[in-house]
Amino acid sequence: LSVAGLGLGISLGGFLWVGLLWIFLRRRIGSLDEKEIFFAATKFIGASLLAGLAAWIVLRILDNFVNMRTGIGVFIQGTGAGLAAIAVYIAIGILSKCPEAATFWQTLKNRLPWSRVAPKEEVISEQQ
Predict the structure, then answer these.
(1) Half-sphere exposure for 118 (CA within 13 Å, toward CB)
(2) CA gap 63, 60 in Å, rounded
(3) Contact (Cβ atoms closer than 8 angstroms) between residue 112 and residue 70
(4) What is the rounded distance in angstroms from the CA atom of residue 82 to the CA atom of residue 54?
């Protein structure tokens, strides 16, 4: 297997390590709500596959318009494919109502220069 065997061995070792850690953590803590984790992982894997497909399609499209023998051409193609993949991944996360994607989007909106993170005046409610 040569070099491919090295990558395969490292990957299999990583999967084995995660499995063992999962078993030990479950023994110590109890239920880890595996059903929710499985559905979240399925969403992430699906979004990743579609984002990769979007990147590949953009790479093929931009290949016809930029000179791939120059550094700027490679940069344009890579940037376009990367932005397409990120956009698809975030869109799928939001459409599938993934809580992590909603948190990411809200954080991003709060960091924009024109957004208000905190109100301009302090609001104090008197509860007694």
Answers:
(1) 4
(2) 5
(3) no
(4) 9
Residue in 82, 63, 81 with CA at minimum distance from that of residue 73: 63
**Tokens, residue 100:** 């992590």
Q: What is the mean pLDDT of the chain?
A: 86
CA dihedral 69, 79, 44, 92 (to 10 degrees): -120
| Structure tokens given for 59 | 């790479």
- Cα 121 to Cα 102: distance, rounded to the nearest angstrom: 27
Name every residue whose Cβ is closer than 8 Å to that of residue 68 and which is 6 or more positions away in sequence: 74, 77
For the stretch 60-98, pLDDT in tens is 999 889 888 899 999 999 999 999 999 999 899 888 888
Tokens of 43: 């969403």
Pull the structure tokens for residue 31: 């239920």
Residue 117 has pLDDT above 70, yes or no: no
Upper half-sphere CA count for residue 117 (Cβ side, 13 Å): 6
CA distances from 30 to 10, 41, 128 (A): 29, 20, 41
The whole model's pTM is what?
0.68
